[in-house]
Each structure stands twice: as C-alpha cells, then as structure tokens.
Amino acid sequence: MKFRKKPIFVEAYRWYPGMETGGVVYxxxxxxGPREGAPFAxxxxxxxxxxxxxxxxxxxxxxxxxxxCEPDIFEATYEAVE
Length: 82
Known about the structure:
The protein is mainly beta. It has one helix spanning 71-77; strands spanning 11-14, 24-29, 39-45, 48-52, 57-60, 66-69. It has one domain (11-77). Strands 1-5-6 form a three-stranded antiparallel β-sheet. Strands 2-3-4 form a three-stranded antiparallel β-sheet, with no helix packed on it. The model has no long low-confidence stretch (mean pLDDT 90).
C-alpha cells in the first residue's frame, strides 16, 4: 500500500544565533571536536532535546510541539502558503 500525508498547515521559522524565538531552550557553541566554535541551539521536542545548526527550520507541530528540520528536507516537504 502507498500513503501520502494529509495536508496540514504548520508554522515554521529558520533559526540563526541570537534569535528570540519559541522552541529554543538553549543556545551555545561547540567547545571541542570537529565542530569546535560552531554555534548550535537546543530545542525541546516530544522525543527529548534535539540540536540544530544555524539555518535549520524549527517547525511548530499540530499539537504545539517543536521539531528541527534540515533546510533541504524542509524545502522538499513544505511550500509557503498565503
């Protein structure tokens, strides 16, 4: 069987360091490793905390929950509406 998602409308924004937005619970910079010095944010999802990088989309789900989404996946899945 094949299925497709029901059309739903979601609110979303692209996260960049220093933004005052809902969903982000912590903002920081990697202290060591291959991403040392790179900024990140932590958002709280239904599955626990999730790290996102600058330019990721934060989607507010139909129950008010938040999810991080990579830009290329977001653009392949969603389209803007009026």
